[in-house]
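Per reviewer request, we include the raw input and output of the structure prediction for the construct analysed in the revised manuscript.
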Amino acid sequence: MLRASTLAAALLLATTTLTACGSSGPGGSDDDSLDVWVYGDASTKVQRAVVKRFNKTSEVKVNLTEVPGDGYTDKMRTSMGTPNAPDVFFNWGGGSISDFAKEGMLVDLGPTLEKDPELKKAFIPTILEAGAVNDTYYGIPMRGMQPVILFYNKKVFQDAGAQPPKSWDDLLGLVDTFKKKGVTPFALAGTDPWTELMWVEYLVDRYSGAGVFKKIQNGDASGWDDPAVLKTAETIKSLVDRGAFGKNYKSVNYTADGASTLFAKGKAAMHLMGSWEYANQKANQPDFAKSGLGWTTFPALPGGKGDPKNVVGNPTNYWSVNAKLKGKKKTAAIEFVKFAAKQDYAKDLIANGDVPTTSDATSLLNEHENPAYARFQYDMVREAPSFTLSWDQALSAKNTPSLHTDIQKLFNGQLSPTGFVAALKKDIK
């Protein structure tokens, strides 16, 4: 799971160098090499492989620095604009790089995409667009897609004689059905407010479409006055009061696998979570992941104007290029990020259990460890008219604490729906 907003500020830098010529450290490489930073986790082996392929043919070599996840965001923010800044670096797009974009620290990749139409067509359009800042491309997709999906426990549903919800009325009916059977309808990690944010994101989108948050993301705070925001808050209150999340959600966590365990053990029937939930269950509850985990889309809302095919979540992660680069190093950096569009890169992602964001990956999905799940995700995202980046990553990082606090207070009954809207208008500008 790659959530910038959940990373701690602790910092320990670990470096892995993959080049024939040595590295002089982050930001200190000579003219014949590039410093590339990546979030260090199990998926980094895909980036290690592409570095090896690139270095076989490029005069300018890449040094790959793996920064541990708990310090990545802090390291990135304190390094940019200094001599120790990376030449190319991993990020989440949107708010994670908006300050760098404003300061002119990033290469505008729009001209590159225009000169190379095949590169632009190589990615699912909504994925490419989701990483932009004010409609300017500063990132090339470089990891798997991460949409938010409505998961369900097949056995719990079978025991209740129930079917996955196809409409909002179905969803509300299931809340009542599972309550009567003593099962929490939806697992919710209330100690981690970013999990509650997923509900807010989908509800606002389903009520009024992606344009509401797009306005807010582009700096127009009047978007908080859209009726969809108040309707969403009222719907959240109604769900809480109805018992959709049970009685103990305030003390349930995600990072320590609390919500996922309740879900896998049949104590909860459904779980709205990012696509990484599959990998999480595979690691911790492998039998459940193999045969008990079901998935579907978030339903439309009665009278809602948003397209029910729209998706929210983390479209993917991106490579961005430092604007300090000139000449052959800049050329090499752009050539390096283009490698993420190649078929062999997509194959490596699939071998790692990810679903690529490239537009021609359909034929590769049968090689995924769970082809049905991979195809569901891929088709869901490819057919989505819009893919909204998680709000806490689309907005400037300075807004994340207030956003999380306000959402948690809404779910905990400490803010009324109208109070929630007022708080957002005051806190997020």
